[in-house]
Protein 1
Amino acid sequence: MNKQVFLVAGPTGSGKDTIIREIIKRYPKVEYGVTAVTRQPRPNEVNGVNYYFLTNEKFEEEMAHGNIPEHYHRKSIDAYYGLYKPDLDERLKRGRIVAIQAQIIAAEYLKKNYNATTFFIMPSFGSEFEHRARTRAPMTDAEWQERLEFTKREIEKEAPLYDYQIRNEEGRVEDAVNQVVETLKKEGYVLE
């Protein structure tokens, strides 16, 4: 049976979104699975495209109905993020391969319930990584040091829990994309 779900995770600034977008560009059968969140949209974010933006009450209601089977709380911004099962199941019904960008709790759920393959993107710790992370979420030098320590702990403790670890070297995102694509094909995904 062909596999239809894969998950890409990694620290902020590791290039996970770029890798997924590049795979989608190459293979129109692949779609980005949209997750749910309780934070406010950023400029240019669209409900149902980037995330499903829910109130805390609606998020809890969706959890109670089994539509958000896993979630995590991001304390720094007091927001909940979770896999939105109706979006995933609708894409699968249409015969799509679904790429999900989420945390380890989603990886465990998707492996168990959807036979997903999981990837952890390992950043290179050069200036490009710092620039991407700071551009996405402006921060002070102290906040950057805290983020860097968090990223190193994430790599040490969580990366080994994923099926594959892919290094995204500065300026070589194409290599990381190719490694993910080759692995997906080897794992039984029919991308074309």
Protein 2
Amino acid sequence: MTGCAETIAVVQGAPGVVVQELFGSLIDRWRAAARIAGVVAESHGLADRACSAGFLRSIASGERFSIFQDMGPGSTACHLEGGGAHSAAEAVRRDIARGCDLVILSKFAKLETNGAGLADAFTAAMQARVPLLTSVSPAFENPWAAFAGGGFTVLPADLPAIDAWWRVLGAARRTSPLDQSALM
């Protein structure tokens, strides 16, 4: 685990809702000591829907971006609404440009594989060389690896493991703020 592999972490091994809850807990824990940009996923809360896509909530501002089209009760279709994800990505890009210590992006999935959704936010975090925490389901591992160029580490969906990853990176970034290239 060297180079960029240490600055980009992918959480796997649990359902998406569990990973988002982990991210929420970590944000609460880290927020006092780190400037965090990004978005986490939230449920739409509607009963009898086949699609779980709901909202992306900005970590920095709390703004919610809808990423679903409600097809009504009993619908078996899942219709992602890419416009909301694109708006969320733009908000994250602005937050990264203002400066942050860490970017958390809910997940790399269907929209991102086609260069849509949060793809621009992922690219902005990587170009800014800011540590990035995300999740990727097994169905999207290959597109993620192609997108990220292989420079990432996989972490279990385990609070202490993810917290340890950030403690190491956070300490390294605090001890050498002028030489961030050493982390890459």
Protein 3
Amino acid sequence: RMLFLGGHGPQPGARAKVFWSPGAKRGVLVTAGLAPLPPDRQYQLWVFVGGKPVDAGVFDADPSGKILFESKELASVTAENFAVTVEPRGGLPQPSGPIVLLGSPSAG
């Protein structure tokens, strides 16, 4: 499935697509327009399952705000929504920073 994520909060101009495979339990995120982050911060992809965020991995965008990122394998296959937040480098077990990209299967 292909899903669109729109810019949110402090980065309304950001855009992304998630190509999600429930069978493979993985996804590929392609972004544009993400802002550069300080060295102690990274973007973190979240997959929402049962209304709760599941860490799908952390990544850095290139200077132009683009990235091609493959998520780590997830145990669950029922993705309800996707978000990208700004988190401390290395990520966190739960989102704490601002949401910069947000989407859902129904939006794509």
